[in-house]
Amino acid sequence: MTILSRVEIINVLDKLDEMYPNAECALNYNSMFQLLVAVVLSAQTTDKSVNIVTKELFEKYPGAYEISNLTEEEIQTMIKRIGMYKTKSKNLLKLSQIIHEKYDGQVPDNYDELIELPGVGRKTANVVLSVGFGEQRIAVDTHVFRVANRIGLVCEKDVLKTELALMKVIPENRWTNTHHCLIWHGRKCCDARKPNCSECGISKWCISNKEVELKG
Fold this sequence. Notes:
Elements: H1 6-19, H2 32-41, H3 47-60, H4 64-68, H5 72-79, H6 85-103, H7 111-114, H8 122-132, H9 142-151, H10 159-169, H11 175-188, H12 207-215
Helix pairs in contact: 1-11, 2-8, 5-6, 9-10, 9-11
């Protein structure tokens, strides 16, 4: 598979902006710490499910101090409807203790410090820096990975290479917005199994769609 030309990429980005003018993080939170927690919990789970469990969690235990005083079992009870809840409970407890004790309850705005926190990987750190601290970042989740490679923005085989490639072909001032638009497009149109190409606003540029048309 080839990738789109620079002009085509800009056309795709412009069209995605037009299609999803309100694209933003779908997780609910009221503080930087709550954003971090929500993103950690969202791994391999829908944002909708995370918002359901964090509603009660954040109402009762809004900050790092409050959660750091819970047990793993208490956290498990509150988040057991989401995937990997046992592992996430362990990470959330340790993360909260570190944020409270080492950072005085404040989430660090440094990538290297973020990824040292339990349960925080590259994607989570990028989301927090982007959504929470306003940095231009491209966080590659399953939607971004699938859509970016399917339509031809890049042609890579893994998440890290996809992120680095996207950073090269997308203007830096558009990284964050493109990240959100690709997620929304993946959810609303470019489904993993049955992409709705007939209703897709960027189908005329999409490499995969062109290949299907040629085979047809």
